Amino acid sequence: MHQVIDQILEGEKEPAAFLEALEMTWKIAHDCSSVIEKVDAIINQNIALKQQNHQLIGLLNMQAQDDPTGRA
User: Fold this and answer.
1) b/e per residue 38-61 (b: at least 16 CB within 10 A)
2) Alpha carbons 28 and 51: distance in angstroms, whole number
3) Rounded Cα gap, residues 20 and 27, in angstroms
4) What's the average pLDDT block by block, 10 residues per block, for the chain (72 residues)?
């Protein structure tokens, strides 16, 4: 920040440090967006797997109820 202030005081209209910080901010925001998209996909996959697990547990419970010996 001090570097930017010094450059402004020296008369630079677009201080290099400010532009560099702006570019870094854009890169970080882009990286964050990519990570958020990946996390969202993982969450959706986990939700689908949880639903499948519930369906399988339901089928196993039905099979256990249909087996009179209790050896389902």
Assistant:
1) eeeeeeeeeeeeeeeeeeeeeeee
2) 34
3) 11
4) 73 76 91 96 98 95 80 58
Alpha carbon separation from 29 to 7, 14, 51 (Å, rounded): 25, 21, 33
Tokens of residue 35, six digits: 């990570």
Judged on CB neighbours under 10 Å (0-12, 13-18, 19+), 24 is: exposed
Can you tell me the distance from the alpha carbon of 57 to that of 31, in angstroms, rounded to the nearest whole number? 39
DSSP annotation of 14 = S
CA distance 12 to 4: 9
